[in-house]
Amino acid sequence: MHRHAFLRVLTVAVSAVAFLGGCDALGIESPEKLAAVRDADGKAIGGACRHAGRAIEDCYALNKKADKAAVFAGWRDMNDYMRENKIEPVPPQLATQTLTQVASAKAAQSDEAVEEKPSAKAGKAKDGKAKDSKAQ
Length: 136
What we know:
Blueprint: H1 2-21, H2 23-26, H3 31-51, H4 56-62, H5 68-84, H6 96-135
């Protein structure tokens, strides 16, 4: 009897390991994996900004959704690397003003989208108050 119970437990354990091991194959991302990707993206953005000779503040302004700590870490790492190897910055081919305007336009669009939602709620609240005053 004990032998059969042991085999059942062993079978369940092996099945559970096989089942849970397949999560990566299914594309299910864990919070740790998402944080690592976000960190790597921020470091890549920071490194690219430094290599292009951009100030860290410009990098933040152009990449509002990126994690600032990761962007700074990438920028600092690239700065150290460029100093050690005496590498000159490669100026961007696009005008800095154009990129700033694009970033400002994107920020304005996202601000407008955020502002539309509360104003729609405010309109509903006003309608609700108007209905209450008509009822009295």
